[in-house]
Amino acid sequence: MEAKHLSKYMSADIARVESIMRASLGSDIRLLQETNNDVLASGGKRIRPIMAVLVAKALGRCNDDTYLFAAASELIHNASLLHDDVADDASLRRGKPTVSSILGPRASVLLGDFWLVKGIDVILSAQRYGDRVMHGFAKTLSHLAEGEMLQLELARTGRTTEEDYLRVIFDKTASLFEVSAYSAAISAGVPDARVAAAANYARCVGMAFQIKDDIFDYQEASNIGKPVGQDLRERKITLPLLGAFKTKPERETEIRKKVCLVPEHPEYIAEIMEYVRDGEGIHYAEKRMQYYLHEAVESLSAFPDCQEKEYLAYVVHYISERTF
After folding, report:
1. 92-93 and 96-97 as β-strands: parallel, antiparallel, unpaired?
2. pLDDT tens digits for 34-87?
3. Is the CB of residue 19 less than 8 Å from the CB of residue 321?
4. How far from chain centre, in Å, is Cα 226?
């Protein structure tokens, strides 16, 4: 199976999701409309709505509400990115200038708020289960805010532990994967056990997805739309570095101090990256990523055998092998 096969299979579904997104974002304010169109055109992987629709189809009942919840997950995801770009002072997103860098942080925050509200509107327009799903998304929005604040706090102290790191990536990334599949399973009207299996599958995929992104930050050949070493520039201690601490603990205190000083001393980046590579930090992170991917596949055992289940298993393979 190849990515193009999944893309072809899902093309009509994603077109429907994007149609809902576009309709919800309509505005008579030209700057807002043009900026919305630019953000929509930048695309992204659409992995959350793809998973959501596949989950509902695999569980036997994809319907209008499924597409609404899938669209809402992507609207809220993009809202979080618009806010993150301000918090991280990011100039690039998916290899293109961010709204914050073009129009300023104020505009990016306002646009993120707009997308967030539209996502909530879309959820509440569902024919069934809207209230239950809204509770799930409300919890996720809390996670997104808490994760960002925890990450900011940890960047100031340089004291990130592996437990801290795993909480941050759940809050900021995996929680939205989780609620995307959770809401899709609810829309399919399946028993709670299968809803839980779908949510766990997506949570594990989300954890692995973020670990892979954090591995890219230490690989010169990465092509994820941000400079290599960007996490270090933002004083973020991620899993590859935490893994190196385990094999080269004698330099941990020194390296943690240097991470905190990277904004003033960018020359430390090359030294820290070499430390991670010598300490097999990337290998450590890859092993943890594979653990989550294995757990994701195990969760699929609760699904009936079907083509969509095979595609969900392929998503796991894609996360492991992706190069951007």
Report:
1. antiparallel
2. 999 999 998 788 999 999 999 999 998 899 999 999 999 999 999 999 999 998
3. no
4. 15
What's the distance, Cα to Cα, between the start and end of the chain in Å?
A: 19
Cα 16 to Cα 35: distance, rounded to the nearest angstrom: 21
Instruction: Spell out the residues 6+ positions from residue 294 whose beta carbon is closer than 8 angstroms to its own.
Output: none
CA dist 74 and 176 (Å) reads: 9
Spell out the domains of the chain, with CATH numbers in brackets. 3-321 (1.10.600.10)
Euclidean distance between CA atoms 312 and 50, whole angstroms: 9
pLDDT tens profile 106-153: 999 999 999 999 999 999 999 999 999 999 999 999 999 999 999 999
Phi and psi at residue 70, in whole multiples of 5°? -65, -40
Element of type H or E holding 92: strand 92-93
Tell me the C-alpha distance between 106 and 109, whole Å: 5
Q: What is the DSSP string of 113-125?
A: HHHHHHHHHHHHT
Residue 96 carries which DSSP code?
Answer: E
What is the rounded CA–CA span in Å between residue 289 and residue 286? 5
Report residue 85 as tokens: 């770009």
Question: Among 293, 19, 317, 306, which residue's Cα sits nearest to residue 188?
Answer: 306
Computed on alpha carbons and rounded to an integer, the radius of gyration of the chain in Å comes to 20
| Cα–Cα nearest to 262, from 234, 227, 226 | 234
